[in-house]
C-alpha cells in the first residue's frame, strides 16, 4: 500500500503581499524540484484518470506526474507538449480548481494534487531549453491562422506537428493576444509567453505581426491570392463592453482592455522608459467581479493607487473570478464593495472623473443564470470619490474580420457561428475560442483551437495529397 | 521594419515621410489611417494616410511635431525604419457623386484631405478646396491641392499669405456668394472642425469631419477613442475616423484630447533629445 497521503497541497511560494503590491514581478514563484517531486508523490496514478477528463485539451496528467516523481522532467514536458503547446502559460492561468483538480480522486478526501503547479513547474523547466520539437513530414498544405491568442497558438501547434505549413496573422505588433495585452505581468510574465511562442516558431510556424485580416487581405484573398488551403479564425473577444451610464466618456474612465493593454502590451508601468503613459489615479474603482476586474484592480495598486475598490453588483458568493485571484487581490489591499451597482460617473468642469455614483443592491429571486438577481435598494445612492474608473464587465467579439466577410455567419452578438468541430458557414474556414463562445478562459480557447486543428487536418486529408500548383 | 524611403520637411516641424509598406499600400483608401511605432519602446501613433502609391508600395504620412512621440519620429531620416506599421485602419471615406463638395483643411489637415479631394474629383464632383494655416510658413501642398480641386481658396490667420482670416470666414463667404454646396468635409484641429460644423449647421449643409483621437490598438479593442455621435458612443478606430460633424460631441472630444497633457509634459521634460538619458537618441 502507498504511504499515507499528505492531506494538503505543497504551498506555492509567493512574494509577500505587502511587497508584491508595489511591483510588477510575478506573484507566485513556482515549485523547486524537491517540492515538485514531493507533490507528484501525492498522485495516486489512477487507472481511469478523471483529472484528464476535466482538462479541455486532454493532457495525460498521471503520466506526466509519474515522470516528475521519477525526476524525468524533460520526458514529463514531452508528455504535456503532446497535447498542450503552452504548459508554462496554462500552469499559471488555468482555472484548475474547476477542471483537472476538481476531478482528482485525492481531492475527494483531501486537497487535490496540485496539477496546475506541477504543470507550471514542468513548463518552466523546459521553457528555456533549446529543444527541437518533432514534426511530421510536410503535407504541402498551407493553413492561415488569424489571431495569435491561445486558440490560434494551440491550433497552429497541432497543425504544424501534423506537417502543415502554418502562418499566424496578428493585428498587433507582438504575438500572444490576450496573453500579452490582457493578463498582467505579475500573473504571467511576458518573457514566458514569448518563449512558448518561440517554440512554435521552431516547429516552422510563421508569424506575421501588424497584419489585420479583413483589412489587408480578405478571407477570400487568403485562399485565392495567398494560396492557403484552410483558415482558422481565433480573433478573440476584444471589444470592451461599457455600462452605458451617464458620464462614461469622462477622462479617467477606462475599459479594462485599455487599462491593461497600456500596462501589459505597451509597458506603461515602465513609463517613461516606455513611451506609453497611463493615468495612475489615487482612488480607483474597478467595475465588475471577474478575473479581468481582479487583474485591473491589482494593476492599479501596483501603479501606486492609494485606494482600489472592486464594485460588484452581486455578493461575494457570485464573484466570477477565481478564488485565488480574489484572495490575492484582498491580501494586497483591494477593497470589495459587494451588492453595489454604478449608476453614473460624476466629473468636473475639465471633463475629469471625480466620483462614481452607486446604488446599493440586494439579492432577489434567481435569474436566467440561476444566480439570485440583484435589485436596487431605493434611496441608497451614494457617491464614491474616485479619479480613475476601470470598466471590466466583459468583452464582445472583435468586428473587424466579420464586418468585412459578409458570407461568414455570425449570431446576433456578433460571434462567429461554428459547429462542434469548429466548422463555420464558409468552406475551409474554421473558428474557435472567444470569438465563437464569447469571453471564456485561455484553456477553453486552446481546447477549441486543438479541436479545430483536428477538423482542419481531416478536411485537408480528405482532399488527398496536395497537388503542386503549376 | 518599415523603411522610410524619403523625408521632406514641408514647414517648420511638419514632415512628410514616404514609407515602404507594400501590403498596406495595396489596400489603402482615402480617409483611412495607419498606426506606427517608431521603435520597441514607442507608443502606437495613429496617422491618417496622406497618400499611397500601390505600384511603388508606399504610404505617405505627414505629421506635425506636437508631442514626445512625434518628435521622436521626426528624428528619423530617409533610410531609417520604423519598427511597426499597420493598416489600413478605419472606414474609407464615402466618395460619391454629390455635386459640389467643399474640402476644408486646417493646418496639417491638408495632408489627409488631399487624397479624399482627389477621389471626389475623380467621381466628377465640383471640388472646392479651402486651406488655412496660422501663417505663410505653415502652408504646404498648395500645388497638390490645386491639382485635385476646381477652385482652391487659401487663407492665413495672420494674413501673411493670400488673405487674413480663418477657414470658416472663407467658407462663410463662399456659401454666401455661391450658395450651399452639397457636402462639406473638414479635417484639421478639433476647434477648427467644430467651428466648421457650427457654421454649416446653420446652413443645413451635410458636413463630415475626420477625428484623430487618442488610441492604443486602433482595432476596436481599447475604447480609448470613444466619441459621442448623436448621443451614442462610437469608436473612432472602427466606426470612423469620419463622422457627421453635426452629431459629434466636440466639447467631449476636446476634453478627451487633453487626457495625457501632464504625462506628455513629463516626457518632453526628459531633456532636449527626448531619450531621457537612455542614449537612444544617437545625438
Automatic annotation (TrEMBL), chain A:
<keyword id="KW-0560">Oxidoreductase</keyword>
<dbReference type="Pfam" id="PF14691">
    <property type="entry name" value="Fer4_20"/>
</dbReference>
<protein>
    <submittedName>
        <fullName>Glutamate synthase (NADPH), homotetrameric</fullName>
        <ecNumber>1.4.1.13</ecNumber>
    </submittedName>
</protein>
<feature type="domain" description="Dihydroprymidine dehydrogenase">
    <location>
        <begin position="20"/>
        <end position="129"/>
    </location>
</feature>
<dbReference type="GO" id="GO:0051536">
    <property type="term" value="F:iron-sulfur cluster binding"/>
</dbReference>
<dbReference type="InterPro" id="IPR023753">
    <property type="entry name" value="FAD/NAD-binding_dom"/>
</dbReference>
<feature type="domain" description="FAD/NAD(P)-binding">
    <location>
        <begin position="141"/>
        <end position="449"/>
    </location>
</feature>
<dbReference type="InterPro" id="IPR028261">
    <property type="entry name" value="DPD_II"/>
</dbReference>
<dbReference type="InterPro" id="IPR036188">
    <property type="entry name" value="FAD/NAD-bd_sf"/>
</dbReference>
<dbReference type="InterPro" id="IPR006004">
    <property type="entry name" value="SudA-like"/>
</dbReference>
<dbReference type="GO" id="GO:0004355">
    <property type="term" value="F:glutamate synthase (NADPH) activity"/>
</dbReference>
<dbReference type="InterPro" id="IPR009051">
    <property type="entry name" value="Helical_ferredxn"/>
</dbReference>
<dbReference type="Pfam" id="PF07992">
    <property type="entry name" value="Pyr_redox_2"/>
</dbReference>
From TrEMBL, chain B:
<keyword id="KW-0408">Iron</keyword>
<protein>
    <submittedName>
        <fullName>Oxidoreductase FAD/NAD(P)-binding domain protein</fullName>
    </submittedName>
</protein>
<dbReference type="GO" id="GO:0006221">
    <property type="term" value="P:pyrimidine nucleotide biosynthetic process"/>
</dbReference>
<dbReference type="InterPro" id="IPR050353">
    <property type="entry name" value="PyrK_electron_transfer"/>
</dbReference>
<dbReference type="InterPro" id="IPR001433">
    <property type="entry name" value="OxRdtase_FAD/NAD-bd"/>
</dbReference>
<feature type="binding site">
    <location>
        <position position="222"/>
    </location>
    <ligand>
        <name>[2Fe-2S] cluster</name>
    </ligand>
</feature>
<feature type="domain" description="FAD-binding FR-type">
    <location>
        <begin position="1"/>
        <end position="95"/>
    </location>
</feature>
<keyword id="KW-0479">Metal-binding</keyword>
<dbReference type="Pfam" id="PF10418">
    <property type="entry name" value="DHODB_Fe-S_bind"/>
</dbReference>
<dbReference type="GO" id="GO:0050660">
    <property type="term" value="F:flavin adenine dinucleotide binding"/>
</dbReference>
<feature type="binding site">
    <location>
        <position position="225"/>
    </location>
    <ligand>
        <name>[2Fe-2S] cluster</name>
    </ligand>
</feature>
<dbReference type="Pfam" id="PF00175">
    <property type="entry name" value="NAD_binding_1"/>
</dbReference>
<dbReference type="InterPro" id="IPR019480">
    <property type="entry name" value="Dihydroorotate_DH_Fe-S-bd"/>
</dbReference>
<dbReference type="GO" id="GO:0051537">
    <property type="term" value="F:2 iron, 2 sulfur cluster binding"/>
</dbReference>
<dbReference type="GO" id="GO:0016491">
    <property type="term" value="F:oxidoreductase activity"/>
</dbReference>
<dbReference type="InterPro" id="IPR017927">
    <property type="entry name" value="FAD-bd_FR_type"/>
</dbReference>
<feature type="binding site">
    <location>
        <position position="237"/>
    </location>
    <ligand>
        <name>[2Fe-2S] cluster</name>
    </ligand>
</feature>
<dbReference type="GO" id="GO:0046872">
    <property type="term" value="F:metal ion binding"/>
</dbReference>
<dbReference type="InterPro" id="IPR012165">
    <property type="entry name" value="Cyt_c3_hydrogenase_gsu"/>
</dbReference>
<dbReference type="InterPro" id="IPR039261">
    <property type="entry name" value="FNR_nucleotide-bd"/>
</dbReference>
<keyword id="KW-0411">Iron-sulfur</keyword>
<dbReference type="InterPro" id="IPR017938">
    <property type="entry name" value="Riboflavin_synthase-like_b-brl"/>
</dbReference>
Amino acid at each position: 500500500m502507498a504511504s499515507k497521503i499528505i492531506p494538503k497541497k505543497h504551498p506555492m511560494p509567493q512574494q509577500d503581499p505587502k511587497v508584491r503590491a508595489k511591483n510588477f514581478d510575478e506573484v507566485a514563484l513556482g515549485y523547486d524540484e524537491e517540492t515538485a517531486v514531493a507533490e507528484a508523490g501525492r498522485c495516486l496514478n489512477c487507472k481511469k484518470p478523471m483529472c484528464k477528463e476535466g482538462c479541455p485539451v486532454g493532457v495525460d496528467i498521471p503520466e506526466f506526474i509519474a515522470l516528475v516523481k521519477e525526476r524525468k522532467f524533460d520526458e514529463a514536458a514531452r508528455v504535456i507538449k503532446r497535447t498542450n503547446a503552452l504548459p508554462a502559460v496554462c500552469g499559471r492561468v488555468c482555472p484548475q480548481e474547476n477542471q483537472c483538480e476538481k476531478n482528482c480522486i485525492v481531492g475527494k478526501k483531501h486537497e487535490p494534487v496540485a496539477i496546475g503547479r506541477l504543470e507550471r513547474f514542468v513548463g518552466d523547466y523546459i521553457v528555456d531549453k533549446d529543444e527541437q520539437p518533432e514534426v511530421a513530414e510536410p503535407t504541402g498544405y498551407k493553413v492561415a491562422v488569424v489571431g495569435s491568442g491561445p486558440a490560434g497558438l494551440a491550433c497552429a501547434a497541432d497543425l504544424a506537428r501534423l506537417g502543415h505549413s502554418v502562418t499566424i496573422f496578428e493585428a498587433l505588433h507582438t504575438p500572444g493576444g490576450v496573453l500579452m495585452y490582457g493578463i498582467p505581468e505579475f500573473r504571467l510574465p511576458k518573457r514566458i509567453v514569448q518563449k512558448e511562442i518561440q517554440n512554435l516558431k521552431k516547429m516552422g510556424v510563421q508569424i506575421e505581426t501588424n497584419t489585420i485580416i479583413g483589412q489587408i487581405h480578405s478571407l477570400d484573398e487568403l485562399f485565392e491570392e495567398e494560396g492557403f488551403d484552410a483558415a482558422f479564425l481565433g480573433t478573440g473577444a476584444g471589444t470592451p463592453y461599457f455600462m452605458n451610464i451617464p458620464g462614461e466618456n469622462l477622462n479617467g474612465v477606462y475599459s479594462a482592455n485599455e487599462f491593461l493593454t497600456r500596462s501589459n502590451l505597451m509597458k506603461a508601468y515602465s513609463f517613461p522608459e516606455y513611451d506609453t503613459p497611463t493615468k495612475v489615479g489615487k482612488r480607483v474603482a474597478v467595475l465588475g467581479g471577474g478575473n479581468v476586474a481582479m487583474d485591473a484592480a491589482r494593476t492599479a495598486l501596483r501603479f501606486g493607487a492609494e485606494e482600489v475598490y472592486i464594485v460588484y453588483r452581486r455578493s461575494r458568493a457570485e464573484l466570477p473570478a477565481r478564488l485565488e485571484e480574489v484572495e490575492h487581490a484582498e491580501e494586497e489591499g483591494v477593497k470589495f464593495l459587494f451588492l453595489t451597482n454604478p449608476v453614473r460617473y460624476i466629473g468636473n468642469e475639465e471633463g475629469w472623473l471625480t466620483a462614481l455614483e452607486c446604488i446599493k443592491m440586494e439579492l432577489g429571486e434567481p435569474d436566467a443564470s440561476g444566480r439570485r438577481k440583484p435589485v436596487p435598494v431605493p434611496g441608497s445612492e451614494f457617491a464614491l470619490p474616485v479619479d480613475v474608473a476601470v470598466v471590466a464587465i466583459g468583452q464582445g467579439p472583435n468586428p473587424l474580420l466579420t464586418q468585412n466577410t459578409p458570407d461568414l455567419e455570425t449570431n446576433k452578438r456578433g460571434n462567429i457561428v461554428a459547429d462542434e468541430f469548429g466548422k463555420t458557414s464558409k468552406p475551409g474556414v474554421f473558428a474557435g475560442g472567444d470569438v465563437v463562445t464569447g469571453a471564456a478562459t485561455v484553456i477553453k480557447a486552446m481546447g477549441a483551437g486543438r479541436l479545430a486543428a483536428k477538423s482542419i487536418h481531416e478536411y485537408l486529408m480528405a482532399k488527398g495529397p496536395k497537388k503542386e500548383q503549376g | 521594419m518599415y523603411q522610410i524611403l524619403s523625408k521632406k520637411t514641408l514647414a517648420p516641424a511638419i514632415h512628410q515621410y514616404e514609407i515602404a509598406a507594400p501590403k498596406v499600400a495595396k489596400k489603402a483608401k482615402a480617409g483611412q489611417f495607419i498606426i506606427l511605432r517608431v521603435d520597441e519602446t514607442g507608443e502606437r501613433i495613429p496617422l491618417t494616410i496622406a497618400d499611397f502609391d500601390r505600384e511603388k508600395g508606399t504610404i505617405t504620412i505627414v505629421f506635425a511635431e506636437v508631442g514626445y512621440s512625434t518628435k521622436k519620429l521626426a528624428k528619423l531620416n530617409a533610410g531609417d525604419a520604423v519598427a511597426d506599421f499597420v493598416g489600413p485602419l478605419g472606414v474609407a471615406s464615402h466618395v460619391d457623386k454629390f455635386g459640389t463638395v467643399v474640402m476644408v483643411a486646417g493646418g496639417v489637415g491638408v495632408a489627409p484631405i488631399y487624397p479624399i479631394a482627389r477621389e471626389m474629383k475623380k467621381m466628377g464632383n465640383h471640388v472646392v478646396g479651402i486651406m488655412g494655416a496660422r501663417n505663410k510658413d505653415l502652408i504646404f501642398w498648395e500645388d497638390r491641392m490645386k491639382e485635385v480641386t476646381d477652385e482652391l481658396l487659401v487663407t492665413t490667420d495672420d494674413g501673411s499669405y493670400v488673405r487674413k482670416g480663418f477657414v470658416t470666414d472663407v467658407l462663410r463667404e463662399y456659401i454666401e456668394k455661391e450658395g450651399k454646396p452639397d457636402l462639406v468635409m473638414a479635417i484639421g484641429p478639433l476647434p477648427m472642425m467644430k467651428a466648421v460644423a457650427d457654421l454649416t449647421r446653420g446652413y443645413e449643409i451635410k458636413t463630415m469631419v475626420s477625428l484623430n483621437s487618442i488610441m492604443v490598438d486602433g482595432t476596436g479593442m481599447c475604447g480609448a477613442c470613444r466619441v459621442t455621435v448623436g448621443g451614442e458612443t462610437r469608436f473612432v478606430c472602427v466606426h470612423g475616423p469620419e463622422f457627421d460633424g453635426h452629431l459629434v460631441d466636440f466639447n467631449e472630444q476636446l476634453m478627451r484630447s487633453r487626457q495625457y497633457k501632464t504625462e506628455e509634459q513629463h516626457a518632453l521634460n526628459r531633456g532636449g533629445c527626448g531619450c531621457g538619458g537612455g542614449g537612444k537618441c544617437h545625438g
